[in-house]
Amino acid sequence: MVSARRGFSLVELLISLVALSTLVAIIIPMTMNMIKNAKAIKVATNFKVLCQSVANTVYLNSEVPTSIDELGRNINAEKYGIAWRESDGYYEFVIFTSENVDVLALGEKLTSVSGAIPPGDFNFVNGGLNSFDDMTACYTFLLDEQGNILIGSTGSGDSDGGEGTGDYGIPAFPTFPEGLPYPEDQYVEKWGHKWYWLKDGVLRTRWTPTEEYIIDADGFYSKIEVIQNRKLVIDTGSAGVVRKIRVNTLNVQQGKITLIGSGKVEIYVDNYFNISGSSQVNFNGDAERMSIYYKGPSNVKFGGNIRFSGTFYSEYAEVEIAGSAQFKGLLASVNGNLKVAGAGTVISDFYSVAVYAPDADVTISGGGSVYGTVIGRMVIVSGGGFAENIIETGN
Q: Which residues make Cβ contacts (< 8 Å) with residue 152, sequence separation at least 6?
């Protein structure tokens, strides 16, 4: 007996083609975007390697480098060039490339890049590109005769009074507020039972029937624990309002803190702060609206897959950004050293300064990256670490 073999119907073929085309439409843009970002990261890294090498050469030899070959051992000199000129007592440098790179993607990795040819006359360092003819992107900065990078990467001689001298526009560590009211107990009443989530000054995002936890007034708390993937909402009120919360212990353990309203919040932590797991604090929010000030002695580590957007300012403790943590805003310290390691990333936001520790040391290593200015008593970059701009105070 011969059995008939059934083939695919036209409808089945059309459905398969639609599904395949949908997958292609999704995968191809994702792949292209990954390639674009990878090229931008490569060029940004090479720009900063050359920038730091130029600064070191000027510092050690008191002269401009004569050849690009001595600056970046693993950089293809056929695709990179260095131009320079003297400007108002400083050296103005332009590092440029002919690599096929998306300037907008590059600008997300490194400030003060451009695809426009710099105006005016420049001298070109030997061994690399000797004209701007094939340039696709460039990066500019200023050096003094001691090799100090004075104006970050602005490419101009104008300073806003915050980058080169003085306090760099960063406010001092604040005095903690006194007299904040003790919060009233909060609970959800259901099924004949009271489910407390705030009692005797202790707020815990424990399970309740509604799972709603909101702070909508200033207050002093003994402890705040945001745990078990639950979300604490802080209502900041209208624009111009600064919500002030003071707490002895703040523990964010696999939890989320989000803001609503148009105001700002300042959280003052007296004794102990912890953040761990994949916790999120103001993630994707306006970094300028969230500030945490910590004067406890225990060191702090932003590790794992933590996402933080705001200011974290420590008075005494050492602070480390590690793992795959992403920190957007200002990481600052009065006395404690700061570290960025692993795949940890710090990105400047409302200040051009990303890491601020003029009286402490900053270490960036093991793939840690800082996009923005790093200010430290001493700044050490090693083991694949990356810093967009460095100012050492020597205090």
A: 111, 112, 141, 163, 352, 373, 388, 389
Number of domains forming the structure of the chain: 2
For residue 193, is it within any domain?
yes
pTM of the model: 0.61
* Alpha-carbon torsion, ordered 269, 274, 280, 281, to 10 deg: 10
Residues 92 and 196 in one domain: no
Q: Which of 336, 330, 274 is nearest to 306 (CA)?
A: 274
User: Which of 82-86, 134-138, 364-368, 381-385 has the weakest average pLDDT?
Assistant: 381-385
CB atoms within 10 A of CB 231: 15
In a domain, 61, yes or no: yes
SS3 call for 265: strand
Query: Same domain, yes or no, for 135 and 197?
Result: no
pLDDT confidence bin for 153, thresholds 50/70/90 = very low
Those residues whose C-beta lies under 8 Å from the C-beta of residue 99, and which sit 6 or more positions away, are 39, 42, 43, 79, 80, 136, 137
pLDDT tens digits along 17-50? 777 777 776 676 666 677 788 888 888 888 888 8
Q: How far apart are CA 196 and CA 126, in angstroms?
A: 72
Which residues span the domain enclosing 274? 186-392
Q: SS3 sequence, 76-106? A: CHHHEEEEEEEECCEEEEEEEECCCCCHHHH
